[in-house]
Write a structure and sequence with these properties.
The chain is an all-alpha fold and about 425 residues long. The chain is built from 14 helices and two strands, in the order H-H-E-H-H-H-H-H-H-H-E-H-H-H-H-H.
Length: about 425
């Protein structure tokens, strides 16, 4: 308690600095892999992807990031175990922010798409075990985390596989791909819009005063999606193509349509991502700020200070702009060759899996979901279409993320204890 009383302002400033570093890592890794398919298919340039992320990630983080957050968001540790030693919780949260941020930046440097959620969870578990003991950790939560390494990529991969197969059979492997594109693309636009609306309503709008029931959210999503499909049908009908063009030109024109779909999906997913995953950076930071403000009292929830959400949003954008290129390259071109139609199938499968997970409570990593979807698209063309060496490195990086976060957090926790004791 004496540490909080004597160094309260310093602790908040240090937490803010490390929270910014964590947000930087989220932008460099998580946002980059979300944008990787759009950049890899050349639907967007890197500069355009950064601009979209700047607008929609920041908007999601600032507008829909939440006014109230649980002090210990993940539920991985029992905050009551720290009731008599709040200073340990404060130092541990600060150590976790720095540990997870450093791991994400290291992974981004090597181009590994890893889970930001698993990074911060590993770090929090690490400091909890050495500060209070194993009893402070809710170990039953770990079964779902480890299971998500297999379950979520499998679900998204299967959806992406069949989505891409349907595009091939209904459009590309036909005598008149353009005519069939005019017939079927509005249906894909409806599906895309429906999934995006469900993701945004479920994950991105609950903190801006729009609290819809599941039924109301579904009806609103369907209504918006019908309007989008109708607008898409009018747009495609209005396009004039030369019937004398060869098949390659026909395919190129069809891919342009899917490229537009990818851009729309990227914007919506960036907003939803900013509103949800910025909490990995601001959750521990908000916990530190609220405990210090309360003089060491650990509450169940806390109002986020006005400066915390912009700090997270700015950090995410700078991280993508400065270090996101390698992860974008891994996801967009390293795993398999993507075209706009393939990338569309992967992005739609990722968003659909997020919706399924939100409805069932399945623990999920957006990163692992997207990688699984890209794998599914590659498998639709045969195992030879996948770069197995890149996939091996990605899976290894997933497995070591939890222990890496824990080990770094433990080391930093001891250093912080020595500095503030």
């Amino acid at each position: 308690m004496d540490i909080i009383a004597n160094y309260g302002t310093t602790l908040v400033l240090v937490a803010a600095l490390f929270g910014f570093l964590m947000a930087w890592g989220i932008g460099a890794n998580d946002v980059a892999n979300a944008m990787g398919t759009s950049v890899g298919t050349k639907s967007l340039t890197i500069r355009q992807a950064i601009i979209i992320a700047m607008i929609f990630e920041f908007a999601g983080a600032y507008l829909a990031g939440g006014e109230v957050t649980a002090t210990i968001r993940s539920g991985i540790i029992d905050s009551n175990a720290f009731a008599d030693t709040p200073d340990l919780l404060v130092l541990g949260m600060i150590a976790s922010l720095l540990a997870a941020g450093l791991w994400l930046i290291l992974a981004s440097y090597f181009g590994w798409p890893v889970s930001t959620t698993h990074s911060i969870i590993g770090a929090i578990v690490g400091f909890a075990v050495v500060s209070i003991g194993p009893e402070a950790v809710q170990w039953n939560k770990f079964g779902g985390i480890v299971g998500s390494w297999v379950v979520t990529p499998a679900i998204s991969g299967i959806i992406a596989y069949f989505m891409f197969i349907s595009v091939q059979k209904l459009i590309f492997n036909t005598d008149n791909p353009l005519d069939n594109a005019k017939r079927y693309v509005p249906f894909y636009m409806f599906l895309t819009s429906l999934v995006i609306c469900l993701v945004t309503i479920n994950k991105g709008l609950t903190h801006v005063g729009l609290h819809l029931s599941n039924g109301e959210g579904a009806l609103l999503s369907v209504a918006i999606s019908i309007a989008v499909a109708f607008a898409g049908w009018i747009y495609i009908r209005g396009q004039q193509y030369n019937p004398k063009d060869d098949s390659k030109m026909h395919f190129a024109n069809v891919e342009k349509v899917f490229g537009i779909l990818m851009i729309i999906t990227a914007c919506a997913m960036a907003f939803a991502h900013g509103s949800n995953d910025v909490a990995n950076a601001i959750g521990p930071l908000s916990a530190v700020a609220s405990i210090v403000a309360a003089g060491g009292e650990i509450g169940g929830s806390s109002h986020i200070a006005w400066w915390i959400l912009p700090l997270g949003g700015i950090g995410i954008v700078i991280g993508l702009a400065t270090m996101g290129e390698k992860v974008m390259a891994t996801v967009g071109t390293g795993i398999t060759h993507l075209t706009p139609s393939r990338g569309f199938a992967a992005q739609l499968a990722t968003a659909a899996t997020v919706v399924i997970a939100s409805g069932t409570g399945l623990p999920i990593s957006t990163t692992q979901t997207l990688v699984g979807a890209v794998m599914g698209v590659g498998l639709a063309r045969g195992i030879a279409a996948l770069n197995l060496g890149v996939l091996r490195n990605i899976v290894v990086s997933w497995v070591i993320t939890l222990p890496a976060g824990a080990i770094l957090a433990i080391a930093i926790f001891y250093v912080l204890q020595a500095c503030f004791s």
